[in-house]
Design brief:
2 domains, about 0% strand, mainly alpha
């Protein structure tokens, strides 16, 4: 419901307009800059719902394939910003601990960044 509210209040359209405006001026820089807040938002919120809103904005904005890929990479990267960013990460941490393998949040972050 809350995400549908973002659509109705024009937040998604505003995001799409921003993508169009900035992507035209500096496409490579904007791809990186746009993916970072998406990654942070995905870490704080549910990545599926944020990813759906990002896809809506990309569809409205008709962004370049590079910009679309950058934003989707941001959706994926958000899970690796913290151990609690994903249920799967938490479950893997627990399974590893049950096997006697201990890893810190920093090790998890580094491995997630490489992957």
């Amino acid at each position: 419901m809350r995400l549908e509210g973002l659509q109705h209040t024009g937040v998604v359209a505003l995001l799409a307009q921003s993508l169009v405006r900035y992507a035209a001026s500096e496409p490579i820089r904007m791809t990186w800059l746009a993916s970072m807040p998406v990654a942070i938002t995905c870490n704080v919120m549910n990545n599926l719902s944020v990813g759906l809103r990002v896809c809506s904005a990309v569809a409205i904005a008709h962004t370049t394939p590079g910009m679309s890929a950058g934003l989707l990479i941001g959706v994926d990267r958000g899970l690796h910003l913290s151990v609690s960013g994903s249920l799967a990460t938490i479950l893997w941490q627990r399974a590893l601990r049950n096997e006697g393998i201990h890893s810190s949040a920093w090790q998890c972050l580094k491995l997630g960044f490489v992957v």
